[in-house]
């Protein structure tokens, strides 16, 4: 145990100052995010949206994300990552304010559109892509998304207490959570402004314009088309079902706020305990093998969710689903970064946002139609079929590592480590 702690501490110490700043902000910011995360789509339903309207609201987010992904990716490769990131985090606070003030589901649409912008500009993944060492990438993701998620363990219970105090699940009982989230977000926005420094990285090729810059990604990347296909399939699995998961748990399985809180807490415990070890495993044996291990646990989680005879089984489902979340953090991210030279990473994530956005536009609406016309249970089971038939076979064709030349270029970039 002591040896593991020293190992993680050693990994932490040799990373750049900027990654440490972003990780510390994430440590506290996750607590405020977790207050509302489980209730966002329930909140929209309580504001009056039916299943198809709920899908439509989520689709507005995907339309905006599709339109802005490639321009922002291009800008990230050419201009200050620090300024773009801080602007994005500032806009996140505007999104939270809109949620806090909403009196109908239609008022959520501007927030969904703006949140698509914040997802690209205020996403710390791009900072991590540039700042982390290749050999530590999985471990660092495990530390940040696992160990650093510990404070958020308290959030689901606090959220359940607040909602119950204000009378149970309703618009007016969920609304205070957004005001608390806004207060915390503003505090850590200023923390970033003060502490985050300009980010050193290889220069993007200046001779290419917008279109040529994206052609460069295909020219210099490896397994680009296959990984785009893998990402698109993963996006389908996520976006068809995710807007309806918590309404399913609330409306079909009759889970009260405390059950929802226990489910969220159980999943967080799994992430905290296992993310760093799985990240270390991913660095040693490869991210693909971690996905092969965790994906069947996701299938089991979904089956238990659909056929759960009691609330206790919902918690078991959430525990198993936590392992798939770990894989998304510690395994998929290194595979993503390994596809291109680091000076192309903004455009590369822009491309992924474009293609996943295109498929995500109809996905929530399709999910709403399936819920209304077939059954909520069938909707929940669809991801298992897609994962087995399409996702895993595509993954087997994708190489694990970037080529040696790309790795050398990344590791030649230095940032201060305090």
Describe the model:
This protein is an all-alpha fold and 418 residues long. It has one domain: Growth Hormone, Chain: A. The chain contains 19 helices and no strands. The chain has helices at 2-13, 17-37, 40-46, 51-78, 81-101, 108-121, 125-131, 137-145, 154-165, 171-195, 210-220, 224-252, 257-285, 287-307, 311-337, 345-360, 363-373, 376-395, 404-411. The chain is globular, with a radius of gyration of 21 Å. Mean pLDDT is 81; it is low at 403-418.
* Biggest sheet descriptor: none
Separate helix tally = 19
The name of the CATH architecture is Up-down Bundle
CATH topology: Growth Hormone, Chain: A
Task: Draw up the topology in text.
Elements: H1 2-13, H2 17-37, H3 40-46, H4 51-78, H5 81-101, H6 108-121, H7 125-131, H8 137-145, H9 154-165, H10 171-195, H11 210-220, H12 224-252, H13 257-285, H14 287-307, H15 311-337, H16 345-360, H17 363-373, H18 376-395, H19 404-411
Helix pairs in contact: 2-9, 2-10, 4-6, 4-16, 4-17, 5-6, 5-10, 8-13, 8-15, 9-10, 9-13, 12-16, 12-17, 12-18, 13-14, 13-15, 14-15, 14-18, 17-18
């Amino acid at each position: 145990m002591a040896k593991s702690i020293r190992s993680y501490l050693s990994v932490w110490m040799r990373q750049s100052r900027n990654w440490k700043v972003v990780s510390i902000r994430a440590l506290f910011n996750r607590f405020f995010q977790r207050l509302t995360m489980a209730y966002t789509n329930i909140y929209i339903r309580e504001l009056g949206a039916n299943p198809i309207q709920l899908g439509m609201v989520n689709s507005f987010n995907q339309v905006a994300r599709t339109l802005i992904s490639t321009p922002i990716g291009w800008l990230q490769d050419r201009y200050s990552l620090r300024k773009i990131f801080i602007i994005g985090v500032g806009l996140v606070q505007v999104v939270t304010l809109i949620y806090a003030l909403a009196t109908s589901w239609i008022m959520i649409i501007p927030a969904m559109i703006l949140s698509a912008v914040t997802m690209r500009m205020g996403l710390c993944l791009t900072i991590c892509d540039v700042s982390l060492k290749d050999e530590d990438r999985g471990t660092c993701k495990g530390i940040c998304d696992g160990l650093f998620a510990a404070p958020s363990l308290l959030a689901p219970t606090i959220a359940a207490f607040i909602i119950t105090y204000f009378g149970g699940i309703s618009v007016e009982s969920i609304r205070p959570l957004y005001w608390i989230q806004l207060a915390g977000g503003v505090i850590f926005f200023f923390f970033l402004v003060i502490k985050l420094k300009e980010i050193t990285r290889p220069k993007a090729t200046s001779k290419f314009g917008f279109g040529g810059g994206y052609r460069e990604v295909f020219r210099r990347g490896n397994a680009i088309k296959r990984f785009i296909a893998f990402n698109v399939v993963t996006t389908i699995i996520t976006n068809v079902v995710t807007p309806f998961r918590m309404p399913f748990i609330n409306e079909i399985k009759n889970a009260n706020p405390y059950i929802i809180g226990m489910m969220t807490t159980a999943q967080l415990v799994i992430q905290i305990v296992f993310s760093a070890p799985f990240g270390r495993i991913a660095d040693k044996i490869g991210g693909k093998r971690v996905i092969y291990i965790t994906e069947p646990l996701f299938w089991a989680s979904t089956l238990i969710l659909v056929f759960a005879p009691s609330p206790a089984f919902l918690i078991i489902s959430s525990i198993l689903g936590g392992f798939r979340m770990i894989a998304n953090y510690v395994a998929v991210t290194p595979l993503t970064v390994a596809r291109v030279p680091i000076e192309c990473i903004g455009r590369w994530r822009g491309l992924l946002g474009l293609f996943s956005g295109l498929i995500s536009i109809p996905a929530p609406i399709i999910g709403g139609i399936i819920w209304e016309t077939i059954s909520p249970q069938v909707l929940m089971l669809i991801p298992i079929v897609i994962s087995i038939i399409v996702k895993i076979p595509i993954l087997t064709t994708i190489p694990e590592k970037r080529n040696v030349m790309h790795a050398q270029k990344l590791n030649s970039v230095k940032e201060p480590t305090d």
